[in-house]
Every structure is written in C-alpha cells, then in structure tokens.
C-alpha cells in the first residue's frame, strides 16, 4: 500500500513487516520471493477476511473533538493489532462536487504543493490497538495520510474504499494482509510472517527488563542505543514497568508524568519510556 499512516508504519517496522506494498516482494532482486495473493496455495496465510472486520464511518467524538470517525470490530478468530483503510474518490466525482475540499486549500497555502489538486485528495484511517476477537476500536479519518482531519460527511461521501490493511497474530507470528476492494483480491507482505515477540541479548538491552506483551518489536539495537515497542499493554502494566526501571537504578534526574518517564542510572545511561492509552502501547529506549 503506497500511503501508510506513520503510526501503522512504526508498528510494522517494529515487528519487521513493513517495507513492501501488496503485490511487491520484500526483495525484488530475489526471484524466489513472491507475494502472497488470493490465488496462491492454501498453505499461504489468509486467515482474516475483510468480512471479519466490521467497519463504518460516521460523525463521532475522539479525545473531546468532533471528528469523522472510522469504527471497526474484530469479528475474526485471531487477535488483530492494526487496521487501516484507504478511501479514494469515486470515478464519477465532478469538479463541482470537489468544492467540499476548498477548506484544505484555503487554510493551508502549501497544501496543493504538498498533496496535489482536488482530484488527488483521498482519506485514510488507521487504528493500532491490539484487539482480541470481539474487540472494537475507533480512529479519526484524515486527508492524504496527514494529521488534517476530515470535517464533514460530504467530504467522505465522495469516496469509495480502495484498500484495507490488517495486521494480525497467529500463534507466535504476526502477518500483514491487504485487501483490494477494486479487484476483490488479497495479498500479504510475507507468506511466513514474522516473530511476534523479539528482544535483544545486547549489553545495553539487558539493563532494562524485557517487556511482556503479545507483540514486542525491536527497531534499534546497537552498542549505545536500544529501542523497542510493545502492543497490548494495559496501563497498570506500564506503571509496573516504570517501577521496575526505578528498581534497576534509573533514578537520577528522573522526569515522570502520566504517560512519560525518563531517568539515568549512576553510569549515565539514560532510559525513556512512553505510553499511549489510545493504542494501549508503549515504547522504551536506552542510550549510553
């Protein structure tokens, strides 16, 4: 998928699934590597159907603000850790109808330079909360994978669904699946998926406790820096993790708020932890 929301990208990079769009191999120089599609053998992963994700778009409230809201429920038998929708303008939309996008260009003089004309306006919505079967989540609809919110249903009603991306967990592995509404076909970023929980044996990573969560991904691991993200973390678990950091000696120049903690140990190694209540996720970094 060409335009993935930044948060969805961060999630996929953390578990090693990002870097390829549907119908593109991870390594184009490797002729043995091909994408998973709906026509591939039954052994390939296509466990979650688009019909398993019940979704709707309607006016709503997120964080106290009126929004056009994408709501979805995981009706599959698998845990889902991310759902993104991309909507494109219908083929029969006219220039007269596109006046509903005027506010984008009037409020931001750089919008056209960065995003093109009104015929190139599209909508995305991305939710990253870890959902067990039956779980639901909401996410704001935004324009062109930016933070600019869709403000009216008239803007959304010029669109039709183009692509749904679904991240799900099966056993100890995670998969990223795509559904193309136009062609009624599926594809996957990896036939074999990636390990759901990873950590590091590096010296710097061993200074902090390993995060216990359904999905844990390491995105940076060097001699002087370590960074990991985790998903499916309730608030009390994050608080307990911060307590354990303090127990391990990270108490120098401590700075703590509800969703943020930073401190150093006596050797000058600094740890930073952040929590997102909306996604029930956390990340932690260590820098020497």
Automatic annotation (TrEMBL):
Region (Disordered): 22-50
Keyword Signal: yes
Listed Low complexity bias regions: 22-44
Domain DUF6591: 196-286
Signal peptide: 1-20
Keyword line: Signal
Protein name according to UniProt: DUF6591 domain-containing protein
Organism the protein comes from: Candidatus Aveggerthella stercoripullorum
Lineage: Bacteria, Bacillati, Actinomycetota, Coriobacteriia, Eggerthellales
